[in-house]
Amino acid sequence: MPDGNSPRSGLRLFTLFDIEIRLDVSVLFIFGLIVYSLGGGVFPDWHPTWPVSTIWVTAFGAGILFFASLLAHELSHSLIARRYGIRVPRITLFLFGGMAEIESEAETPAAEFNIAIAGPLMSLAIAVSCMIFVASALDRQSLEQVVANPELGMESLGPLLTISLWLGSVNFLLAIFNMVPGFPLDGGRVARAFVWRVTGDRMLATRFASTAGKYFGWIIMGVGLWELLALKSMGGLWLILIGWFLSHLATQSYAQVATQHLLAPLRVRDIMRTRFETVSVDMAINQFVDDCLLRSNQLLWPVMEGHRCIGTVSLNEVMRLPVASRQGLGLGQILRSLADSGALDADMAASKPSPGLRALAMARCP
Ligand SMILES: [Zn+2]
Known about the structure:
Blueprint (H helix, E strand, L loop, with lengths): L1 E2 L7 E6 L2 E5 L2 H21 L5 H32 L6 E5 L2 E5 L7 H29 L2 H9 L1 H5 L4 H20 L7 H14 L2 H28 L5 H29 L4 H4 L7 E2 L4 H7 L8 E6 L2 E7 H5 L3 H4 L9 E2 L19 H6 L4
Parallel strand pairs: 1-5, 3-4, 6-7
Antiparallel strand pairs: 2-3, 4-5, 7-8, 8-9
Helix pairs in contact: 1-2, 2-3, 2-6, 3-6, 3-7, 7-8, 8-9
Bound molecules: zinc ion.
The site of zinc ion (ZN) has 6 residues, from α2.
């Protein structure tokens, strides 16, 4: 799934096509889970005669290739986005799959459609290639055996064909799951592109697709709850988690698109605060708390040395010091320098990624 607002977390792996590939630590958990379920259950079932070492090496290889195929899915979103002039600085693999940080929204329904469909098409292409590979490696008799009696037929497959068969089916499921028409899943983006094309109204299309996404999340949560309570299966917990994540993401993505839409015609100077108080660098921290923070709704305070602004101070900086050690200290000891305060150009587009309150107030700091 492509997204414009994923947190910059995890380990930097490498750079591919000028896109930074990152790995969230949660991937290690899911990787362990996949390798464990393949090596501990699926592969021993398929190949009762395999030595333990073969089982685990195959499971490990399958886990690695699974994440490689997730990466291929995200890369195809990203490369198509780039063809439309949209920057994609990084892709992060995390607990629920991959997230390409696509910096801005597509400008036309056609662009939206092509960027969204590219990922599931890649997953489908991987699935088909795996299946073709398996089919071409087997003679007619073995192929018929696999189709007629999968459990027995599977035994005749070597590690490479076993991985291909598993990876092919997983990628097929991945393509199907991503095509569910709920924003921000790929299928939701495709649905949004259609509604946008028909109505000419991107916001209406987004509302439609994200509402569908929210309901889809609830349905998955419902199925998970049913699985948990009626079937007493712990797999239900996983579905509840995924469903919650999807509905949360749908709501959040809609809010993000709506905010971008509202801010689109504005510059930072249109929404920044222009009337604020300043404080002197010599002021005691306790006096700042009593006279400024507790008496005003101003969150960020420019700190002045004479007529020059040398930094900012807010509740955050005060809170970093325990109450007992604030005694006798001045704002000079805790202020954030101007360079760290994230000053913005007043003519910058207001819809640029997350211009926080801190940055906004800085725009007019003298
Ligand atoms: Zn996708």
